[in-house]
Amino acid sequence: MTDTSSALYDRAAADREGFWAEQANRLHWHRPFTRVLDWDDAPFAEWFADGKLNVAYNCVDRHVLDGHGERVAIHWEGEPGDSRDLTYAELLAEVSRAANTFTGLGLTAGDRVAIYMPMVPEAIVAMLACARLGLVHSVVFAGFSASALRQRVDDAGARLVITTDGQWRRGSAAPLKPAVDEALAEGDSTVEHVIVVRRTGIDTPMVSGRDLWWHETVSLASPEHEAQPFDAEHPLFILYTSGTTGKPKGILHTSGGYLTQAAYTHNVVFDHRPGQDVYWCTADIGWVTGHSYIVYGPLANGATEVVYEDTPTSPTNTATGRSSKSTASPSITRRRRWSAPS
Questions:
Q1: Where is the composition biased (Polar residues) (predicted)?
Q2: Residue 270 is part of a domain; what is its CATH number?
Q3: What is the pLDDT of residues 109-133, one digit of tens each?
């Protein structure tokens, strides 16, 4: 970036709406906005309210159309040592397959989807497929209990849950799908289907008529899907507070304003250089840091990023050796400091 931090602050202070219009115009708008900030219903603000865009198109399609389809979007490192690269073209195909599958299950714009998964590529694919269809995703941290999952499913009114058979933690495979079964067994639920990614190979009971394997549905779907635009104020996701001080509170984020902010801050804070940097955020997608700086911010900017399956509580040659820029949540930073040799 050529602008210093103080210059950016000065520009924003001098013309707030002009500044954010400039940042928003870094995105692709299917229908350009003419209004930046609308305070007519104060204290509720609307950003770019008369514009239309598709969040997934901005994170994937446009990079492919701009000739960057062969650029690696995600370099994923599994906890047992396996790895996988997804180029932007491959990511587009995967997101399209998931979008076609969700549509085939009868989901339509505005429906809610709960994503209860560890840090695997399919979790990011699921988030982007929801964004592509105007579905509202609610990502639930995979370390939360069945009762915590049920609270969030009920509050959001989720029609679909996406999970894995299990997850790897510190060299061992632990079951995850049973927590979904336990959560949904607690009385009537809005959930109609559960899609399960086979990650660990743990024996996983499936409920007939409700449960579906990812590899038997999403992986076999068509890789062609045309993204449709949505209003800038269309809901993108609900993310819940941890609930440590009371009932979890769902925070609703809308599309245009959120993506503008996530893309802008990722770009300037990390001095991102597309095609040159390899970026790594050590957070989990279950938290807002992961939403903004693993999924939406980096991918909107065409970044190449490392995604690591486990919690990096000590440095690893695999992940740290491949990144030129990284960020971490405070809790991860504290744990890494404590685990360092004295």
A1: 311-332
A2: 3.40.50.12780
A3: 999 999 999 999 999 999 999 999 9
